[in-house]
UniProtKB/TrEMBL annotation, chains A, B:
Family matches, as Pfam families: PhoU
Location, primary (coarse class): cytoplasm
Organism: Rhizobium deserti
Quaternary structure, from the entry: Homodimer.
One GO cellular component term noted in the UniProt record for this chain: cytoplasm
Biological role stated in the UniProt entry: Plays a role in the regulation of phosphate uptake.
Location of the region described as Disordered in the Swiss-Prot/TrEMBL record: 214-236
GO biological process, one term: intracellular phosphate ion homeostasis
Domain PhoU, first and last residues per copy: 21-109, 124-208
Keywords, ordered alphabetically: Cytoplasm, Phosphate transport, Transport
Family: Belongs to the PhoU family.
Gene coding for it: phoU
NCBIfam families, per database record: phoU_full
Protein name: Phosphate-specific transport system accessory protein PhoU
Protein's cellular compartments: Cytoplasm
Length: 236, 236
């Protein structure tokens, strides 16, 4: 009886971590959706909400970390159980960073009050849709623990990177066409970079789920198609 | 005797973490110094070295994380000892991020092969000097555990933020003066942002050291003077 009781309390601790991480994921996703909506609609009130939400997300990460550490010290888990807890720590850290990226995007809303040109807004929304689908799907995989789906998500990050590189070029073109676009487009460049990095964090989470489930790191080089870092000064 | 032996092995585990973190700090600092040098001197070979160094830094973070988790499970530490290990995990994560920022700066060297205008190079070097002094000093405080110095470093981040905001404005001015500067200056904006964020990570580390030493979070709002997020489109 005693042993059953201990196991069940332990299961509850693991379930607590899983539930809190899913909650964090939902909040991080909502913050990023709201941030892009605030940006394209010049909605300062919504931007302020995103900035306020980030306090709760940071707090959640800290609580998950504390709970995970207490569980490790109390239960001395090994193998799959230990990977489960270490994985929780890593995923919570990635989600906290996703929230920071949403917050940074929201903070720039006030700087682009002149409004975002329609074509650029569509580009940002499209990039954001791609990144948030990745995030949403990886959070589903966190529940289902499908190794195949984790692999598939990891390989799809290059689509986001290619879209980001294309948007980067477009923003440069706008700036070159009219210097009055420079300040706004500079902030939009940072916003685009923020969104692209949400995709990177979704990929990190996919790799962590792979590790939690199999005990191994995924094989093969991580695809990397963001070539904007090396876009030269000519013709771009 | 047995108890002394156990205590001593435990001390060795803590010392191992301290030593590995100091090593990570040294490497992260060197990577960032090299990245800025590579940028202002258009030195692709040095940039490649920084990119290669990042693999080792990532590996170190993973090893520190594994060792920390094993130590928590084996020793079930409480109070100051537990904070020591949790702090190590947090600092290693911050240093890994600092390395990523150095790597991202290095990757942009190839895009600004046209060279960095002298005045902007001086601005970037100055910003980098400020951020790297913060990083170096916080790594010294990690050894000395001086709460007063940790507090002082935390309060000094606003100097870096103010310098970053000034450089941000200067880069926008260059772009407006001549559209041919736009691509290079865009990459330099991202580099400046990378360097400014090194200062943020030094501040995080200072806060972690404060927590490790006192068990409390530092009091008072963290100073924040990076106003570039909200620089409006007019006159900047």
């Amino acid at each position: 009886m005693a042993s059953t009781h201990i196991l069940s309390a332990y299961d509850e601790e693991l379930q607590y971590l899983t539930r809190r991480i899913s909650e964090m994921g939902g909040l991080a996703e909502q913050m990023c959706t709201d941030a892009v909506r605030a940006l394209v609609n010049s909605d300062s009130a919504l931007a302020q909400k995103v900035i306020a939400d980030d306090v709760g997300l940071d707090q959640s990460e800290r609580e998950i970390q504390e709970k995970a550490i207490i569980t490790i010290a109390r239960r001395q888990p090994v193998a799959a159980d230990l990977r489960e807890i270490v994985g929780s720590l890593r995923i919570a850290a990635d989600l906290e960073r996703v929230g920071d990226l949403g917050k940074n995007t929201a903070k720039r809303v006030i700087a682009v009050q002149g409004g975002v040109p329609r074509k650029l807004a569509r580009g940002l929304e499209h990039l954001s849709d791609l990144a948030l689908v990745q995030l949403k799907e990886v959070l589903d995989v966190y529940v289902s623990r499908s190794v195949e789906k984790a692999e598939a998500i990891r390989l799809r990050d290059e689509e986001i990177d290619a879209m980001y590189t294309s948007l980067f070029r477009e923003l440069l073109t706008y700036m070159m066409e009219d210097p009055r676009n420079i300040t706004t487009c500079t902030h939009l460049l940072f916003c685009a970079k923020n969104i692209e990095r949400i995709g990177d964090h979704a990929t990190n989470i996919a790799e962590t789920i792979y590790y939690m489930t199999t005990g191994a790191q995924p094989e093969g080089e991580r695809p990397k198609d963001d070539t904007s870092n090396t876009l030269g000064a000519a013709n771009s």
